[in-house]
Specification:
The complex is a heterotrimer of chains A (228), B (159) and C (491). Helices cover 68% and strands 0% of the residues of chain A. Chain A contains 8 helices and no strands. The longest helix of chain A is centred in the last third of the chain and has 24 residues. Chain B has 159 residues and is mostly helical. The longest helix of chain B is centred in the middle third of the chain and has 32 residues. The chains are: A mainly alpha (228), B mainly alpha (159), C mainly alpha (491).
């Protein structure tokens, strides 16, 4: 009975939302802010990827908030999961292929991750995407050898300093008399690797932070298994 | 009165359908992990809806590939918004999974109603008030201690 | 300088990122960094007040003018709440020192930064991001108590909050699809033409349900009794006192600036009435102190929603007065509940053991019910006069519900006071009677002193609130402050 009411409620809600959405002009949005940003972004931020100039320039404080949310989630998960159990070493290791495949893939994935981070202002990608790939580089070796020790201390140091450097770069702009998180050092080299001033640095901080965070979160999750 | 099957109808039905399925899943599910998964589906639907807000017909991705006059590009702002929303969702999902692991360890069950009962019992016990007398235990009952791990089978029930 | 206000958000974030690292190297510096950051935040705002703050200010973050960039809109209302956030963050700071204190204090700093952002921000999606940050920090702090019940309560709150955020995102998508902007001032300009229809109402309803989770709106307030009972008392005090008001502030801004439809006000009125009825009745039936305070909180916020629904901003002064009054009262009551949490029956005779605590409880109860000359009477009186002047029957129903709720409040609060001052049961030893003591009692007396001070200087406080309300209602002032000529797209 409860299931039926739940389904009816969801169905009704979906139908109502659909009728509202059909009133929208799909494919021809008003683009009030969009056209302005597209016109001014290359001069104001110097990034060829306009989405990056929105993420790290026009809406940089949203990105800072997003970074903090991920940090809050990782810290809360650390609080919830508690101390790491050292009995995780009794879990079965992966076989030959898994272990060595993991070790082989590790440097490759790190390279790909850093490539995506560094080119965030030129091609699709950026700090978050690259950071997740960096963390994924740790996943396979961790799953292959569950008892392997991860350098939690250095990961936590990287995480802390990367996050702090994002805010500090923003504060640096204030020291120069400009606004918080204003892009600095805009060179005239649109489309090249060294361009867009502080934007690639911000993405590097984001990528390192996200990578370190997710890697230590996963290793903590693995090591909380109840010993059987 | 069947509406014409246009691309926009398919897209909107997908986005709103995902949200509806997710919300229905949260309401109907009796297992806490399934509720979290339903929430993940609903969040995917909401993100899709946000991305659709920026699409323009026959436009390209908002990336300048040459110094020539850029062709018509899609709106970059919803893409940035969805980037943020996806990361927020991932953070919350990771936290939810950690809490689920803990609940499973402490209460040995992930059934929604059983966990709620254990929670009410524990709140009442720690606050020292008289609980409402339930139907199954008219004389009142001490809260159940957590079951040892070796007596719990894989589904989360006591063996 | 007003542009320093960004530091009230940026510095707590910086502190939160560095705290776990600092704690490993030097515990002494790490323990003090949080309170120092909060004191500096208070100082920035006080300095702004001292040089004279009359006209609202708009701070463009990143140097990008709105609506391209995000701006902070600082009027007296926002500044007052931002100050309350920094101050209450300091008062409710988790001073415990154990292995997890670095994480706890990090989360508290994140909560303070998010709450300040909620008070000051002028962009719709930015408000959503800070709202989610406050939510995740709350999840972490609520589950930090280590009790198994806290985990289940936090998970249920997480799922409810997740549903809310899905709906909020949908509403934001609708608004952006229709108008093409996310800046509140720009939306205020465009709303009369573009959002005054079914689409605007749907967007408002979805965002209302989403933000209403934290504002303890009916029906998404089922998380409140569970979380307040299992989380630490200081966190419950911060949530009930401050965070719920910030969510109410967001809904208020949306209502004032963008959604002027009468249906929007009607929905808020109905939900407010339902909230008052369900909250106060449940509080009357509650047998445990913290649950009683939780339900009473729901009831009080329902009253604030009723005040918010009055047309043409007539209820603004009542909203602000009730919100600030509840902030002080609830924080004080939760501080008393730190030692007095639990079954109310156990508190029989506690007045003899801690006379100051019992006196404070009576003081807070009298003000909550609305006894003159305490501030609670003044706040409720403003609402009653505004409601009585309405012609629509729904508002008169709201007035009737409001008066009935006051009677119910008086009944259950004075029942507790009677138990406190009663004689203890024959077999209880004097050591078993809970006494209110220590830091919690000091904090409660702080709030009590604030209440008495407000009562003594009620006339200037009243004038100040009137000025704040008039400034907050002025939509044209909002639009012209943010951008004298908003650069719209080529339409």
């Amino acid at each position: 009975m409860a299931n039926l009411t739940g389904l009816l409620f969801a169905g009704g809600l979906g139908f109502m939302l659909l009728s509202i959405a059909s009133g929208l002009d799909f494919g021809a949005p008003p683009m009030l802010v969009g056209t302005e940003i597209q016109a001014h972004a290359p001069q104001q931020t110097g990034a060829a990827n306009i989405v990056t100039s929105v993420v790290l320039g026009y809406r940089a404080i949203d990105t800072l908030g997003e970074l903090s949310i991920l940090f809050a989630a990782a810290v809360s998960a650390g609080l919830v999961l508690g101390r790491r159990h050292t009995t995780a070493g009794t879990q079965t290791k992966g076989g030959f292929i898994l272990q060595n495949g993991g070790s082989l893939l590790f440097p490759l994935m790190m390279t790909i991750g850093f490539y995506i981070i560094f080119h965030g202002h030129l091609t699709p990608g950026g700090g978050f995407q690259g950071g997740v790939i960096l963390a994924a580089a740790f996943f396979l070796p961790l799953l292959a050898r569950p008892g392997a020790k991860l350098h939690h201390k250095s990961l936590s140091l990287i995480e802390g300093f990367a996050g702090a450097s994002f805010v500090l770069i923003g504060l640096l702009a204030m020291l120069e008399g400009k606004a918080f998180l204003q892009p600095l050092m805009i060179q005239d080299t649109l489309g090249q690797l060294v361009s867009a001033g502080t934007l690639p640095l911000l993405y590097l901080a984001v990528g390192l932070k996200v990578g370190a965070e997710l890697a230590s979160l996963l290793s903590r999750l693995i090591q909380t298994e109840a010993p059987q | 009165m069947i509406p014409a099957i246009t691309p926009e109808l398919i897209l909107y039905v997908t986005a709103i359908g995902l949200i509806a399925i997710g919300l229905a899943g949260v309401v109907i599910s009796s297992h806490l992990f399934r509720m979290v998964l339903a929430l993940v589906i609903a969040e995917a639907g909401a993100n899709l809806m946000l991305v659709l807000a920026g699409y323009r017909w026959d436009a390209v991705a908002p990336i300048l590939t040459s110094l020539a006059e850029p062709p018509m590009m899609v709106d970059p702002v919803p893409q940035a918004l969805v980037l943020t929303a996806i990361v927020i969702g991932v953070g919350i999902q990771a936290l939810a999974v950690s809490i689920l692991i803990r609940i499973r360890q402490r209460y040995a069950t992930l059934d929604r109603n059983k966990a709620a009962e254990r929670m009410d019992a524990e709140i009442a016990a720690t606050l020292g008030a008289s609980r409402d007398i339930s139907q199954e235990a008219p004389l009142g009952e001490r809260p159940l201690p957590p079951l040892p791990a070796d007596q719990v089978n894989m589904r989360g029930d006591a063996s | 300088m007003s542009s320093n206000l960004v530091l009230t958000i940026a510095l707590p974030l910086l502190g939160a990122f560095l705290l776990p690292v600092l704690m490993r190297s030097s515990v002494a510096i790490a323990l003090w960094s949080g309170p120092v950051i909060l004191i500096y935040g208070c100082w920035i705002i006080v300095e702004l007040w001292l040089v004279g703050f009359t006209q609202p200010v708009s701070i463009a973050i990143g140097g990008f003018a709105p609506p391209l960039g995000i701006n902070l809109y600082v009027d007296s209302l926002a500044l007052l709440f931002a100050f309350a956030v920094q101050l209450l963050g300091l008062i409710f700071w988790p001073f415990t020192l154990d292995q997890e204190s670095a994480r706890r204090q990090s989360l508290m700093l994140l909560l303070v930064a998010a709450s300040t952002g909620l008070a000051l921000s002028g962009d719709l999606f930015n408000l959503y991001v800070f709202y989610e940050l406050a939510a995740v920090a709350t999840f972490g702090l609520a589950s930090a108590s280590g009790k198994s019940a806290a985990y289940v309560a936090t998970l249920r709150y997480l799922i409810l909050s997740g549903i809310g955020s899905v709906l909020t995102l949908f509403g934001i998508a609708l608004i952006y699809s229709q108008t093409g902007t996310l800046n509140l001032a720009h939306l205020a300009q465009l709303a009369p033409q573009q959002l005054n229809n079914g689409l605007g109402l749907t967007a408002f309803l979805t965002i209302l349900i989403g933000i209403g989770v934290k504002a303890e709106l009916f029906p998404v307030n089922t998380w409140v009794p569970e979380i307040y009972a299992t989380a630490s008392t200081r966190l419950s005090a911060f949530l009930a006192g401050l965070l719920s008001k910030l969510a109410v502030l967001i809904i208020l801004r949306l209502l004032l600036l963008i959604f002027h439809q009468p249906e929007a006000a009607q929905v808020i009125l109905i939900l407010g009435i339902l909230g008052v009825v369900s909250g106060e009745l449940a509080a009357w039936r509650a047998k445990e102190m913290k649950r009683m305070l939780a339900f009473s909180s729901i009831g009080q916020l329902g009253m604030i929603f009723i005040a918010m629904s009055l047309p043409d901003g007539q209820g603004m002064v009542a909203v602000i007065a009730l919100a600030l009054h509840h902030l002080i009262i609830k924080s004080g009551l939760f501080m008393l509940a730190e030692d007095w949490g639990g079954a109310i029956e156990r508190l029989r005779g506690s007045a003899k053991a801690s006379p100051l605590g019992a006196a404070l409880f009576v003081l807070f109860s009298l003000s909550l019910v609305g006894m003159p000359p305490l501030p609670g009477f003044w706040a409720k009186f403003v609402l009653i006069t505004e409601l009585a002047g309405q012609v629509e029957p729904l508002y008169l129903l709201g007035l009737a519900v409001f008066l009935l709720a006051t009677v119910v409040e008086a009944s259950y609060l004075f029942r507790v006071a009677g138990i406190l001052y009663g004689k203890p049961a024959a077999e209880t030893l004097s050591e078993e009677i809970p006494k209110s003591q220590g830091l919690a009692l000091v904090t409660a007396s702080l709030f009590g002193a604030g209440l008495v001070a407000t009562a003594l200087w009620i006339a200037p406080v009243g004038d100040g609130l009137q000025a704040i309300a008039t400034q907050a209602q002025d939509v044209d002032l909002y639009i012209t402050t943010v951008s004298p000529a908003i650069s719209g797209g080529s339409q």
